[in-house]
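Fold this complex.
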Amino acid sequence: DAKTTQPPSMDCAEGRAANLPCNHSTISGNEYVYWYRQIHSQGPQYIIHGLKNNETNEMASLIITEDRKSSTLILPHATLRDTAVYYCIVSNSGNTGKLIFGQGTTLQVKP
Amino acid sequence: EPEVTQTPSHQVTQMGQEVILRCVPISNHLYFYWYRQILGQKVEFLVSFYNNEISEKSEIFDDQFSVERPDGSNFTLKIRSTKLEDSAMYFCASSEAISFRPLHFGNGTRLTVT
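Structure:
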C-alpha cells in the first residue's frame, strides 16, 4: 500500500497558487519524496522530488517539513492545463524504479 | 525534449491470444519499466529491467508475462495468453542510470481483451 496520505480532491482558481499537501509520517531516512501527475489517463509525468531540502524547478516547488513527515507541492500560477491527478510517492527504490502509486489528489483548476 | 514512445496506442485482442506491447525508451536511459492501470484504479508496478535482466517484479507479473529488449532501442512486454482481467492501460517508463533519477513514462497502450 502507498505510504502517503493525500486529500482526494482540491479546487484552485486559475492564476492562483495550488498547494497540494501530502502526509508521509512513516518516511524513512533514505526515502525521497516524489511528485508525479497524470493528466486524463496519459502516462504519469514527473514533477519534482526531494530528500529533505526544499526544491524548485520550472514546474513547481516542493516544501518538505523539517521532520520530513509531510510535504507540500506548490504550483505557483495554476492554469487549466494543470488539472490532473497529483501523486505524492515516497521511495528508496533507487534504480529498481518501483513506485507505489496511491489514489492521489485530483486537482481541478477553474477559470 | 526526448520522450518514451509506445505502440500501438490501442490494441484489441481476444481472450487467450498473445499480445506484444512495444516501447522505445529514451535513448540514453538504461533502466526500463512496465506499469499498468486498470480503468478507474491505481497505477501498478509490473517489472523493472536493467542490463538484460529483470531487477524486480510484482506479484502481478506472473508466468504469462515476459519482457525483452530485442535490440538497442525497443523494450517489449509480452502477454502469452490474455485474460479479460488483463484489460488495462500499460505504461512503459525509463530512467537514467543515476540513483533516484525520475522515471519518464510513455502515454501508454490501451489493451482491451474481449
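The interface with chain B takes residues 2, 32, 34, 38, 41-46, 49, 87, 93-103 of chain A (CB under 8 Å).
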